[in-house]
Amino acid sequence: MRTTRWKTSLIALFTGVAILGCSESARTTEDSENIDVDGKTGADTLTTETGSTLELPPPDTTHQAEKRSKTIGWPEGQTPKAPAGFTVTKFAGDLKHPRRIYVAPNKDIFVVESDDKEKSANRITMFRDTNNDGKPDQREVFINNLNQPYGMLVLNNYFYVANTDGVMRYPYKEGQTKITGKGEKILSLPAGGYNHHWTRNLIASRDGSKIYVSVGSASNVGEYGMEEEKRRAAILEINPDGSGERIYASGLRNPVGMDWEPGTNTLWTAVNERDGLGDDLVPDYLTSVQEGGFYGWPYSYFGQNVDPRRKGERPELVEKSIVPDVPLGSHTSSLGLEFYNGDRFPSKYRNGAFVGQHGSWNRSEFAGYKVVFVPFQNGEPNKKYEDFLTGFIADASKNEVYGRPAGVAELPDGSLLVADDEGNTVWRVAAQ
């Protein structure tokens, strides 16, 4: 894991709050980078170089804005919009809240159909493209009767599923189209959580010796007491049989997407930050994950910026809170994460990160509702993120959207799949 040194002095600015200088944080960058904090040009920026400055607006604890989207579905023939040089096609439809996509080592594609408890299909559907034309010619219900599944993993002849209340594993042979064996619950987890924090993601270490499990918080800022937050707001590490559990990193309010940076053993995660401090606080973020690292929740955010609702609590944790790498905009609900390992997209996309932003609900105006791309150069996030897949918002004045992106996954042919859980579709983005 690489580390960065930041100074921990705080300076109040009339435009916001700044963190200046150097102490422990997520990384060091040689060149300054301006990263858009709220996803709009000219907004507050983060400059990440040695002697870095993070500017954020002051917290507003009276903030009560709400603007919930209404899904109207995609008109016939209409698709999301990608940059010039890309095509967008429907890979699969007639799904029920497709939330996460996993591509197995044998190239089979697994899609979780899952949602809030009362709406969840609780199944995983398998797709197979046998002639490599970018369209699945086989579709099977792979597992049924799950409990709000999200994370999936193939490892050591097992198929792992992270339900909201625990990790299951099933005997699995490469290429099988349906799980027939009895599953084994290898790890129990605290179920549910604050405002859709039911997702539990999975990823294996590079050598397959460990599995990492993400668990979101039970609350917004610990308002139900920290006893309710045990083993939450964290990434857990376990052995493949479920033993040896330990907290790998904590203070991560709702870590959902996880992926390994290409060519490294550095784990990254996309995190949903807290509500109730204003339209532009607190930014969701993409960050490298330090073993044993603490990322602030619920006591502070973006380093030592103290949440006024937890003022004076746990100063020793605030002191060591790590500043995340890349802010992704406040209330964007940044869920999916996929580093691009292929070579079919233009060279600027190689080794960069795609993030699926499900979209806001507690903000005066919509934020998110798109897939963004974070360029990486020499192993560092480079400059601000940019829009990659847009067009999900139909009419913001009427709160209408066609769909909402969530999970993202790269196919072996170098194209990108995007799960649109409100549009009940999986989209495929390919270079022309």
TrEMBL record:
It comes from the Bacteria. Pfam families: TrAA12. Residues 45-55 have a biased composition (Low complexity). Gene3D superfamilies: TolB, C-terminal domain (2.120.10.30). PROSITE patterns: PROKAR_LIPOPROTEIN. Residues 81-277, 321-429 form the Pyrroloquinoline quinone-dependent pyranose dehydrogenase beta-propeller domain. InterPro entries: 6-blade_b-propeller_TolB-like, Beta-prop_PDH, Quinoprot_gluc/sorb_DH_b-prop. Residues 27-79 are annotated as: Disordered. This is L-sorbosone dehydrogenase. It comes from Pontibacter korlensis.
